[in-house]
Amino acid sequence: MKNQLLILSFLSIIFSTSYAFSQTNVVTGTASNDATIAYGEITGTVRNSETGHVAPNVSIIVLKDGSLVTGAVADEKGKFHIEHIEAGVYDIKIVGAEFQDKLNKNIVVVKNKITHLPPHQTEMDFIPQCRICMPKVEWDAQKVPERIKTEVKWISEHILMQALGVK
């Protein structure tokens, strides 16, 4: 009987911890279980303003009153989709190593709607001299092994997570 109570207590702790963790926002650490909060989404495709080519692996940062709310990294097609954003007005900053930062102010996120950023809000101006002082390398994405693509994406996400203060 004592062993059964011990096992039951142990399982109770595990399940309550799992539930609490699943209800916590990874970026801010705050509970996201409030049924009164209405959420929306932001999507878009980031492109080079000069060439029209997509800009993969750039960071999209969502700010409210100058404070970080959340963020994402554009995929290999320059696309991003940020979900579960509380309805309201935000500034969206797009940052890429070879591009001039782009700040879009007063982007409205509506409850249960997708806010799609149009091209004029997601086109980035290329900086001829890379800000991290590395030579620009031309490469054909079709010829790059999948392992390298995965590592590049992981590194970009890791840098964003560090910038957001998430470990």
Which descriptors apply to this entry?
three-stranded mixed β-sheet; 167 residues; 9 strands; alpha/beta; 26% helix; 2 domains; four-stranded antiparallel β-sheet; disordered N terminus; single chain; 3 helices; Immunoglobulin-like
Can you walk me through this structure?
There is one protein chain. The chain is of the alpha/beta class. It folds into two domains: 1-35; 37-164, Carboxypeptidase-like, regulatory domain (Immunoglobulin-like), CATH 2.60.40.1120. 26% of the residues lie in helices and 31% in strands. Strand 6 and strand 7 form a beta hairpin.
Total of DSSP H or I helical runs spanning 4+ residues? 3
Number of strands: 9
How helix-rich are the residues, as a percent range? 25-40%
Might you state the CATH topology name of the largest domain?
Answer: Immunoglobulin-like
Strand percent estimate: 25-35%
Query: Mind summarizing the main beta sheet?
Result: 4 strands, antiparallel
**CATH class group of the largest domain:** Mainly Beta
Please state the structural category.
alpha/beta
CATH architectural arrangement of the largest domain: Sandwich
Uncertain segments of ≥5 residues (pLDDT<50)? Answer: 1-32
Give the ordered list of helices and strands.
HEEEEEEEEHEH
Question: Total domains, how many?
Answer: 2
Indicate the mean pLDDT. 75
How far apart are the first and last residues' alpha carbons, in Å?
Answer: 42 Å
Rg result? 20 Å
Major sheet: arrangement of strands: 4-3-6-7
* Shape call: globular
CATH superfamily of the largest domain: Carboxypeptidase-like, regulatory domain
